[in-house]
Amino acid sequence: MTVSKMTREDVKAVALLEKECFASPWSEETLLEETVNPTAVFLTAKKDGKVIGYVGANNILGEVFITNIAVSSDYRRQGVASLLLKTLIDICLKSGASYLTLEVRKSNISAIGLYEKNGFSLVGERKNFYTKPDENALLYTLFFKYD
Predict the structure, then answer these.
(1) Is residue 135 within 8 Å of residue 97, measured between CB atoms?
(2) Helix, strand, coil fractions of the chain, as percent rounded to 5
(3) C-alpha–C-alpha distance, residues 1 and 57, integer Å
(4) Computed over its alpha carbons, how large is the radius of gyration of the chain?
(5) Dist. CA 48–CA 38, nearest whole Å
(6) How far does CA 137 lie from the centroid of its chain?
(7) pLDDT of res. 132
(8) 115 a catalytic residue
C-alpha cells in the first residue's frame, strides 16, 4: 500500500469512494478544485494502483482541518485509515502546524477509536451538525507541541 498526494487522475476514484462512504458526497468538480487549492492536503492510499482510501484536509495558517477520511468497505480494518492519518500528522508536524482538528458523527465508534488512538482529544460537540440522518458531531483535536 502506498500513500501519495491526490492527483487529477485520482479524482474519479475518490469521487466514487465519496459516494460509497457518505450520505452527502463531494462531487468530482469539488475534488478537482482541491488538487489546485494551495491550502489543501489531500492524500490517497492505493493498493496495486487502485485508490482504496483517502484523507482530505485544509491548512489555514497552521490550523489544519480534516474535511473527510474514507476507506473502501473492502479494505476497512486493514490499517488504511491509520496510515493516511499518520501520514497527514507527519505532514502537519513538518509544516509546523498548531493543531489538526475534525468533526465525527457521535455514533461512529470505530472512527472515534482511531482518532483517540492517534492522540486526538475530545474538545466539543456540535448539535445537529450532520444530516441523513440528523446527528451531533464530536469535535476532536490533536494539538502539536514543539520544543
Answers:
(1) no
(2) 35, 40, 25
(3) 21
(4) 15
(5) 29
(6) 15
(7) 83
(8) yes
- Check 18, 34, 54, 103 and give the catalytic one: 103
Residue corresponding to grid cell 499518520: 86
Closest CA to 98 of 69, 55, 56, 60: 60
Ramachandran region of residue 114, left (φ > 0), alpha (ψ -120 to 50) or beta? Answer: alpha
Name the packing angle between helices 109-117 and 80-95 (round to 10°): 40
Nearest to 16 by CA among 83, 85, 72: 72
d(CA 45, CA 56): 12
- What are 94-112's pLDDT values in tens digits? 999 999 999 999 999 999 9
Give residue 138's pLDDT: 97
Among candidate residues 18, 54, 115, 140, the one labeled active-site is 115
The predicted structure's pLDDT at residue 24: 87
Is residue 9 flagged as an active site residue? Answer: no
C-alpha cell at 15: 469521487
* Sign of the C-alpha dihedral computed for residues 53, 57, 62 and 63 taken in this order: negative
Grid cell of 110 as nine digits: 470505530
